[in-house]
């Protein structure tokens, strides 16, 4: 369904206020200005120089280090950065006044007729997004990548407007949609994450993820992990309109993706693709699932089978996700800084094939570490805590491993891990936590890890 068709009935709103002057905010401002809105960007923090320059180049009014509430409350439409919680007083006041508060994804959707692939999930969505984009691009499509990765979706719609977009969508972005409808929706998995934003209610978080299918019709497709009990329970209780294409490591399907005799088999409408699992450059069971999801999208969009197979072999993976950094004294150092929750770290530990010194910790989002205990018992020889509050980790794993040390900087953590690791071991940074206690974000944390390893 085209976005134009979906949104042609919406009235034009004149005064657009954007809360947050980062990538999504500035992109929305540029698109808003192009579409004839009077546009104003407001950020409670400081707007980075590169974004300030873009606003000034486009003649867009902005403020930072404050919110001019009186002005903001005169908006006809507000785009809120995904980092701003729904229950902040300003957002509550906007809603009380009946002013629509939407996400960048919703706003940009109104102005493109591109075919959209929306990808969400607690883990694996970045890898799946980048792999899907890689397959479609190698297949010759005019395709953009946006959402949580790449440039702002709104900015791309304003400046290039590709024929296809692959969008990585967080639950926060999905919370701000009304009419947004991807032609192909992908849900990689659902495990508890960001529960601090959902009043510690897992069901609210699940409902947020499933907003990705809320506007889909029988002409659209929904690709999902049939091994995930949370997804399967929700689908049993909530009928959806779209055509379902499951993927699984355990089951076979008439339509969907599965593994049989070390072959990935993907069946869509009257078409079957097979390729050896050995073709995958990405290691681990979770990456086999990411590959099945991405290849199913490519198959639906009629990318040649041989192109899909070759593209799977040439994909390089995602920075900060099980990224091999260096081997020093026959010890492999792996950067998995993107593992900001327990489930992501579960996949990382599961893929370890040698004794592991595990660097873990950060801002605990209400983590339940018990799922990791069997893997920690089996694979982890020592733990290096990296965070301000390490108590939950000490309590969870104190009886599991002989050695746990506490650190407050990446350099110290890497040095401690270096002392604890022996020939043939792996040092794994897989924090299972957010990064905001000691780092700007997970990328900063990953870069500092790689830098500290190179200094050894």
Structural commentary:
- With 456 residues, this protein is of the alpha/beta class.
- It folds into 3 domains: 14-102, Rossmann fold (3-Layer(aba) Sandwich), CATH 3.40.50; 107-314, 3-Layer(aba) Sandwich (UDP-N-acetylmuramoyl-L-alanine:D-glutamate ligase); 323-455, Protein-Tyrosine Phosphatase, Chain A (Alpha-Beta Complex), CATH 3.90.190.20.
- Helix content is 35%, strand content 22%.
- The protein is built from 18 helices and 20 strands.
- The strands form 3 sheets. It has a 9-stranded mixed beta sheet with strand order 7-8-6-9-10-11-12-13-14, covered by helices on one side.
- The longest helix has 16 residues, at 285-300.
- The N and C termini lie far apart (54 Å).
- 49% of the residues are buried.
- Residues 320-433 form the Mur ligase C-terminal domain.
